[in-house]
Design goal:
- The chain is mainly beta.
- The protein has one domain: Beta Barrel (Porin).
- Helices cover 8% and strands 40% of the residues.
- It is built from 4 helices and 18 strands.
- A hairpin with a 4-residue loop joins β12 and β13.
- The longest helix has 18 residues.
- The radius of gyration is 22 Å and the shape is globular.
- The relative contact order is 0.17.
Amino acid sequence: MRLIRTLLAAALLVLCLASAHSQAFTTLPAAPTPASAQFPGGIGIKAGDVSPHGTERTDAPIVAMFPHPENTQWWLSGQANIIYQGRLPFHSAYEGSNSFRSSAEYKTSLIGTLYSGIRLNHSIGHNTDLILDVESAGGRGLSQALGIAGFTNLDVVRNPNLGSKPYLARYQIHQTIGLSQASTEQEPGPFALAARVPVRRIELRAGKMTLPDFFDINSVGSDSHLQFLNWTIDNNGAWDYAADTRGYTVGGIVEYDDRNWSIRYGLFAMPVIANGIDLDWAFSRAHGHNGEFELRHSWIAKQKGVSRLLFFANRAHMGTYREASDAFISHQDATPDITKHAHFGALKYGFGYSAEQAFSGNLRAFVRFGWNEGAHESYAYTEVDQTFGGGVDYAGTRWKRPVDKLAIAIVSNAIKSDHQEYLRLGGKGFLLGDGRLNYGRETIVEGYYTWHAWRGLFYSLDAQHVNNPGYNRDRGPAWVGSVRAHVDF
């Protein structure tokens, strides 16, 4: 009955928000929803790949409460996401302060975002957008979002003490500089308002943002609001991208776009401490470099495909796992504590690869791989040093529900030997720490069905099986189920 009452309350909240034409402020994700998630269309959405918003055929399903008007110089939209998530009891030989709890539990998370923007001119070749988004964080994750590297709900904030007070999530200047006379169509959205852009162009962004809006985008596995929920399925878990606790940072991006490929680079502020809310403004000692090459090429005729190669290099006040373990073994420290062995300018680096491919109008697949050097502490996203995963989704066209999605994915995460030894000796990271460790890869299988109920209203059922939560063979496997209500307006 509690579950039924929660779902009914969620539905009433969503419908009330829609009827009032207002935006609900909600929880901010640990790694917020990527730009691609705003457009539930095709693979690798770039200029020229899709039709402009509002020009679909007249019988196309409506997927927003209030579709955005065409040919405007402004943008105003919003979303609300409510996830009810529960866990069955599972085997656990022991638990530590950062463990995923083995008893039955349920939690509800809430997310809402108000997107706004204005386009300052009508020029195709030289266009300027001003972007401002407001969000609020509320709700909780299972076990306070601790104990699993690939946590089961991307929408939860990793620090429950932040509260639900609304805050500025993004503020940006977006400048397009055309390099060709030829132009192509682009679907307007909250991060790019123009309906046409030059085929070859430079795009500049500066301000507050979250990196998954522009890097590692994957239209099959990047949207916790309509697709998968797991942190390491929706994002590359080994990509320790610059971010505060809520997933945001300040910096800039320069991007070059051509007809079939793009390259982008960004420099961003790092947090003062691991998983901290405050950013270090001394860029000379702490900063995150991120770069990506994107190739829009399909291996199947008349279908869309995209490949992306990502790299990152972070400098921050980080410690090394081996130094912390050695200090404990030599009795310098009473317990392994990596925070006592941090050094300014420490370097953590890694790379990632992702690909997505459409096989038909309904069937799509994706793969991801990520690796980082693993000697320095996990600092901003999650405790993963190596990851590999992939999945498929299938649209419900055959049963006359073209916006519905049925999907399944698997991801396997790992940590390096120094990281393993630190946890085995009883050390804690900002997410993990069972007190000891019988190491094994953390492997997660997730499946969902998303049902398009009406206009911008969606419901989803989701199930996840987590083997070796927190890389510990002495714990699990764990089953986690979720019900999600989502509205776009």
